[in-house]
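Lab meeting, item 3. Inverse folding demo.
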């Protein structure tokens, strides 16, 4: 089980919007991701390598 070790942060592109996701670092060298509209429901943990692939896809608009 991964433990959240940093503050949740929202993408700078989101500004004041609430329909986005937040990310935080974990103790297992991965990222935790959660929905800003349902912060208390659950979060998804992904390895750092998969997080990097996701960010590349988003930035290149291939997703």
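The presenter then showed the designed sequence:
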């Amino acid at each position: 089980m991964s433990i959240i070790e940093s503050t949740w942060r929202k993408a700078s592109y989101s500004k004041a919007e609430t329909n986005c996701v937040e990310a935080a670092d974990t103790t297992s060298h991965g990222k935790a991701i959660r929905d800003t509209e349902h912060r208390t429901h659950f979060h998804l943990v992904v390895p750092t390598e998969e997080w990097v692939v996701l960010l590349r896809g988003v930035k290149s608009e291939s997703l």
